[in-house]
Task: inverse folding
């Protein structure tokens, strides 16, 4: 079975190669099926293409939906239950626990580091008995589908480098985003949609911006860049025809264009000209296929109910979750959501309640919706932010109000589907929730594991740029086998 | 989604492959197995293999070295193996007793090289090259790019095709693989090609007619001189340098506030237009502030080193970011000027090139002596320039800095370089590149393998670095710049990896030509306009771009230049072409960047809500019709229609943009309002100009302005047909006509009939979407 999948993949690739070779000059549409462009890239990139593009082993997941919680949600009010912090509320964090860990410029000069426990209660749920805070009632109901990792850790302590690290495997530098790597490595399953789509939403909490460089192709070719889908009449930039035209007149224009371009090809013989004709045809097809996929109005009531009424409001997190499912159904390889507003330096209990309300129901709905469609088994869903938050209070501590600074040493994310063991909690922090005491998972390990689930060896998915073979995992990364089925 | 690569298609078309072996890494091994050269050359045949597959463990990086064996230096490669003194990796002349040969041919996983777990493999062809090299005596040579160029003899050619020295070199090469040059391109296409390559703008109908009328060698020469003297030349050149120098209009980290580096960009345009010699151009940018009695202009030039990103995120650690900026300066200098990639040596000795980590931080220390800090202020309290910066008064701008296009209202600021006044900051090797991991102390110096830094000759500061850089004995500087210029014009450098002349980079396709051009460039005062003139007056340049089957087969990538390469215009030049041909172009040079039409919400949805760039405030009036190079670049959200056409995101130094062909590009050309507006404005101009019964005149002029040549009969009849069809459609649906023309802010001409207007606009819009329109043919 596993071997068969690999063979199928190989077969598919060579078939594409074959078709694309055949198609040149005889006017078939098969060039359009050249889905893994770098395979044949005679340019400056890596040439060990064939090997790279084929899954290195049988994939468990075929696609990823990454629900990025930008700004860094607190683990202490979500998944890492630490009653000791409530017991010792207001006491100074022992220096032995902090152990010289660097702090941000925002709290480095605080005289005291008063411990602060969660304002919200925790309960255990499901057969796994995972602890979840009262802020996430919907997520609590699906804990038996989730693998909650409480031992993520990162090197970065500020938002920009931390989120860049999560997305690209490096804090600095123009490296390709994870979605771009997957688009490069695995291509797209649907030639009429981008392989890597990005959906952005915003909560009311204190936010840190996201930016298009997070979905950059870096040094990979620009086709691997994430395509941001927006609400409204242009779900993809420049998708809509101008006013005063329609699909018929556009069809006529394309036919004329094609005749002109063919005339030019006859004179110069540059195959780039015929390629251009095909790109226009592809664009024309996207004009139909994208609005079909992004149209949420035909979803039945029980689905709307599942995701919550917000899912009918374009641009909300809930609408983006529902859209993510539709994109996944239509073969998009990597769907990246960002929900902003999780940077609770102050007023945490209040702000975090709002943020959790934005995302809780729809995140859980997405997992259940994929499951009921039989798609969860080969779709990997990830939920989490760029680092954790401190166990001590930033600023003034009162019963109702407190804040938490950035904490890179330990934080929680959850994963579901796509070959992840369901209903487990992985990794542990100490009773202060400060240091990891069991099964640490570094960002590089996290990336290596995701690639592994998609059938890719993180050490072999490389691209040669400026003389060096780059990887998503840089020079590190261990696959966390314990969380995979 | 699908992408099509020019190079890839060319490869697909090729049935057999080139005989020339040093391109082997782009070719198919099986075909080449029969093409082993009689004499194996170390630099051209052997080292690319050793470097790419072996040096990672048996190369310059001491910490990664296995078995204490180096294959990059012969002393080690020829010595007895440490673990097995009877065995030698290489016995010159004796492959049978060379362990290297045994192991690369072995299929035993325990001993095979490269080892299975490395994921690296040798092709049969490559194994045979290594074996034969050992058999022929395993001669080592220094890396070609680190040997100073000598002016080679100009090869004799029998044909009278050659117009200047360049042609001698190219003709010999193309003959070697059995190709002859294409005929000279048709004159109108050549005129457009010259306009685009030199000024980045299309010729007007008047230009075409004036120069086309008396087409002769003399006219050609006059045209080249004319173009080189236009101020658009400096803009075109500056565009490339802005990529190299990672120029942008914002600081680039999150919250991404506006910055003011445009006065430096105005200086770059000015310097190119003044034809400042390249050695001086570099010296001022690296060390203008350290020159004796430095002028304002010299200090302004140092803005080059301040274009990197700067954080304004609250709570960051000062030293972490200060170090990041110095590293960016070091890497940008290395890549843009020396054509080498030093950043690998930031964390460890370079794995492929002979640069140690200590040498990296010696180079770093030249840039480590400024009063800059990691963070000056968070967004909201920040300033559009950071310490050290200059502020110019009106008097200065009216006199010595009159090339700065300053708006009347705002202060003119620019961040520049300056050294600490009373002290020197100690630099250290930073272990594993960590900002706080101080290792050994280092002082300024340069990599020995490139060219010795003579402490008696050069001062130990940035000025000394500049002098070292432009020293005639520096093997890289002139070669690298000449190669930039060549690459911009021909679409491919003589060294295809413009940013990497090291061991991992491509070898030059025409090594003698590269050296001849580099030495000639230095001997003639680093004169950039002269260099461009040499290139564009050559017969090599003037060839038609017609691709015969034979040429496609033998040289699909056009490495041997037996034709001209068709190249897609860059994102900025596409905009220029639209604006210039429609008559909308505002030719004002320099000044603050502008914000054109942009789809709604792109900045807003990603912004944290802080800073002046949280919302996109579009400019209006003639401002929005300026050249593409002046479009405002917010680093965290660069202009989307530019990125779609492979524009640099300006995050880091970039020398060679990709050239892709995607459906999103088709969507931009079909639906971006600026394309539609240009179509609308050109249509209204031509309808007013031509009488009712002169539709053909309007169609022909549209074609001339956009394609820069006369249409042929078939093209005319296709245009007429489309015109008739669109006219019919809009006559039956005048509402659609009215809404089609309702695009863009440029004033309407109410006297123009909307149906006629929409019809001609539609035809023009079609012309803008032709493949040829955005290509240099």
Result:
């Amino acid at each position: 079975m596993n071997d068969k999948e690999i063979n199928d993949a190989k077969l598919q690739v060579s078939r594409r190669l074959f078709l694309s070779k055949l198609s040149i000059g005889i006017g078939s549409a098969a060039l359009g099926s050249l889905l893994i462009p770098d395979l044949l890239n005679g340019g400056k990139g890596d040439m060990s293409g064939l090997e790279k593009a084929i899954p290195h082993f049988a994939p468990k997941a075929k696609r990823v939906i990454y629900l990025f919680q930008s700004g860094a949600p607190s683990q202490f009010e979500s998944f890492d239950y630490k009653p000791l912090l409530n017991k010792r509320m207001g006491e100074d964090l022992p220096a032995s626990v902090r152990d010289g860990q660097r702090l941000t410029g925002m709290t480095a000069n605080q005289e005291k580091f008063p411990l602060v426990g969660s304002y919200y209660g925790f309960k255990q749920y499901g057969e796994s008995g995972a602890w979840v805070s009262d802020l996430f009632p919907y997520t609590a109901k699906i804990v038996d589908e989730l693998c909650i990792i409480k031992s993520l850790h990162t090197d970065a302590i500020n938002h920009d480098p931390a989120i860049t690290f999560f997305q690209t495997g490096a804090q600095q530098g123009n490296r390709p985003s994870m979605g771009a790597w997957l688009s490069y490595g695995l291509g797209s399953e649907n030639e009429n949609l981008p392989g890597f789509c990005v959906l952005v939403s915003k909560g009311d909490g204190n936010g840190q911006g996201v930016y298009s460089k997070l979905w950059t192709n870096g040094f990979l070719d620009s086709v691997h860049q994430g395509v941001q889908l927006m609400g409204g009449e242009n779900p993809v930039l420049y998708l809509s025809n101008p006013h005063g035209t329609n699909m018929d007149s556009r069809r006529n224009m394309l036919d004329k264009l094609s005749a002109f371009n063919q005339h030019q090809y006859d004179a110069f013989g540059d195959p780039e000209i015929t390629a251009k004709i095909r790109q226009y045809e592809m664009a024309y097809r996207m004009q139909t296929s994208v609005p079909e996929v992004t149209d949420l109005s035909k979803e039945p009531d029980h689905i709307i109910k599942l995701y919550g009424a917000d899912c009918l409001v374009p641009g909300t997190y809930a609408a983006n979750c529902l859209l993510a499912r539709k994109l996944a159904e239509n073969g998009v390889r990597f769907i990246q959501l960002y929900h902003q507003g999780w940077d609770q330096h102050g007023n945490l209990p209040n702000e975090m309640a709002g943020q959790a309300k934005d995302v809780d129901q729809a995140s859980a709905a997405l997992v259940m919706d994929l499951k009921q469609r039989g798609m969860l088994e080969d779709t990997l869903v990830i939920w989490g932010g760029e680092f954790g938050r401190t166990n001590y209070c930033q600023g003034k501590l009162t019963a109702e109000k407190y804040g938490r600074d950035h904490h890179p040493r330990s934080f929680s994310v959850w994963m579901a589907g796509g070959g992840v063991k369901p209903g487990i909690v992985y990794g542990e922090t100490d009773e202060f929730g400060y240091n990891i005491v069991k099964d640490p998972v570094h960002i590089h390990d996290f990336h290596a594991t995701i690639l592994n689930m998609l059938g890719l060896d993180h050490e072999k998915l490389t691209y040669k740029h400026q003389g060096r073979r780059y990887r998503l995992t840089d020079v590190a990364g261990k696959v966390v086998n314990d969380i995979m089925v | 989604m699908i992408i099509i690569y020019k190079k890839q298609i060319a490869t697909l078309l090729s049935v057999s492959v080139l005989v020339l072996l040093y391109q082997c890494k782009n070719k198919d091994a099986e075909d080449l197995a029969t093409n082993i050269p009689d004499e194996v050359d170390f630099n051209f045949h052997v080292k690319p293999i050793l470097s790419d597959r072996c040096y990672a463990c048996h190369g310059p990086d001491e910490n990664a070295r296995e078995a204490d064996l180096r294959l990059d230096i012969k002393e080690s490669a020829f010595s007895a193996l440490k673990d097995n003194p009877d065995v030698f990796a290489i016995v010159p002349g004796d492959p049978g007793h060379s362990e290297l040969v045994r192991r690369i041919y072995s299929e035993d996983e325990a001993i095979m090289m490269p080892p299975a777990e490395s994921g690296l493999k040798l092709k049969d062809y490559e194994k045979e090259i290594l074996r034969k090299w050992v058999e022929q005596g395993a001669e080592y040579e220094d890396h070609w790019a680190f040997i100073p160029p000598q002016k080679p003899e100009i090869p004799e050619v029998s044909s009278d095709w050659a117009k200047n020295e360049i042609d001698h070199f190219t003709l010999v090469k193309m003959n070697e693989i059995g190709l002859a040059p294409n005929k000279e391109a048709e004159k109108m296409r050549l005129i457009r090609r010259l306009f685009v390559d030199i000024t980045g703008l299309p010729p007007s109908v008047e230009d075409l007619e004036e120069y086309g009328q008396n087409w002769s060698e003399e006219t050609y020469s006059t045209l080249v001189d004319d173009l080189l003297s236009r101020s658009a030349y400096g803009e075109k050149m500056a565009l490339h340098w802005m990529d190299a120098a990672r120029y942008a209009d914002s600081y680039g980290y999150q919250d991404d506030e506006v910055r003011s580096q445009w006065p430096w960009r105005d200086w770059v345009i000015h310097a190119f237009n003044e034809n400042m010699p390249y050695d001086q151009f570099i010296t001022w940018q690296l060390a203008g502030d350290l020159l004796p009695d430095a002028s304002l202009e010299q200090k302004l030039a140092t803005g080059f080193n301040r274009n990197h990103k700067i954080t304004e995120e609250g709570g960051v650690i000062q030293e972490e970011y200060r170090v990041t900026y110095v590293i960016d300066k070091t890497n940008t200098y290395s890549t843009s000027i020396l054509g080498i990639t030093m950043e690998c040596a930031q964390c460890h000795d370079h794995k492929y090139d002979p640069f140690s980590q200590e040498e990296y931080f010696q180079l770093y220390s030249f840039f480590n002596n400024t009063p800059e800090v990691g963070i000056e202020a968070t967004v909201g309290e920040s300033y559009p320039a950071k310490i050290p910066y200059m502020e110019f008064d009106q008097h200065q701008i009216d006199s010595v800095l009159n090339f700065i296009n300053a708006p009347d209202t705002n202060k003119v600021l620019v961040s520049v370089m300056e050294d600490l006044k009373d002290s020197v900051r100690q630099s250290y090797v930073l272990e594993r590149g960590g900002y706080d991991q101080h290792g050994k102390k280092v002082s300024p110096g340069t990599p020995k393998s490139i060219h010795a830094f003579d402490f008696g000759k050069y001062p130990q500061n940035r000025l000394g670095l500049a002098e070292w850089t432009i020293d005639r004995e520096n093997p890289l500087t002139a070669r690298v710049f000449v190669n930039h210029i060549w690459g911009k014009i021909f679409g491919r450098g003589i060294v295809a990896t413009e940013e990497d002349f090291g061991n991992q980079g491509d070898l030059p396709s025409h090594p003698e030509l590269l050296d001849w051009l580099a030495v000639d460039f230095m001997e003639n005062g680093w004169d950039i306009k002269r260099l461009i003139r040499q290139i564009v007056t050559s017969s090599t340049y003037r060839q038609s771009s017609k691709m015969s089957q034979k040429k496609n087969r033998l040289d699909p990538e056009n490495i041997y230049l037996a034709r001209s390469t068709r190249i897609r215009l860059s994102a900025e030049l596409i905009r220029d072409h639209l604006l210039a041909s429609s008559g909308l172009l505002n030719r004002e040079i320099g000044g603050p960047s502008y914000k054109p039409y942009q789809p709604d919400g792109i900045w807003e949805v990603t912004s944290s809500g802080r800073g002046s760039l949280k919302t996109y405030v579009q400019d209006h009036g003639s401002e929005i019709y300026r050249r593409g190079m002046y479009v405002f670049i917010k680093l965290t959200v660069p202009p989307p229609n530019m990125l779609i056409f492979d524009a640099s995101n300006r995050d880091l130094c970039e020398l060679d943009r990709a050239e892709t062909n995607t459906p999103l590009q088709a969507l931009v050309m079909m639906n971006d309002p600026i394309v539609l507006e240009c179509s609308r404005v050109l249509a209204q101009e031509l309808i007013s100009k031509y009488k009712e019964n002169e539709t053909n005149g309007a169609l022909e002029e549209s074609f001339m302005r956009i394609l820069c040549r006369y249409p042929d009969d078939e093209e005319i009849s296709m245009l007429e047909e489309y015109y008739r069809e669109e006219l019919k459609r809009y006559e039956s649906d005048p509402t659609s006509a009215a809404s089609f023309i309702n695009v863009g802010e440029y004033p309407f001409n109410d006297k123009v009939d909307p149906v006629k207007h929409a019809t001609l606009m539609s035809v023009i819009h079609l012309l803008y979407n032709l493949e040829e329109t955005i290509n240099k043919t």
Remarks:
- Chain A has 13 helices and 17 strands.
- Residues 1-53 of chain A have pLDDT under 50 and may be disordered.
- Residues 388 and 411 of chain A are 4 Å apart (CA to CA).
- The longest helix of chain A spans residues 348-372.
